[in-house]
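Milestone M4 deliverable, item 7.
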Amino acid sequence: MSDARENGDRGKQQTNEAALSARLQRLNEGLGRARGSQPSDSPGADRAATASGYARGFRLSSELVAGVVVGAGLGWLIDRWLGISPWGLMVFLLLGFAAGVLNVMRSAGLAAGTALDDSTRGNRDN
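Output delivered:
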């Protein structure tokens, strides 16, 4: 009786493997069609996209660093001028950081520009 059960299990296992093989073959054919329909990128295009990504990352990071440095510099100058030693630097460092983050968000397209930017764009279009 156990031989009959083992033979039945083997037959079922072979059926499952055949179904799995058929599904895998269909998947490979579908992937082949999908890859064939996409335009192939040349190494030059890939290199240009990488360079463009580096340029954008450098630009965004430099805008953040510039905001912090300008804020810290203004705070230090105000401290020296008014004699309120740590407070000007701390306040303007935080303001510079906030301005840097806002500039990065604007450059990345995540935040809208100011109303002044919109009005000057409208004048350029006319």
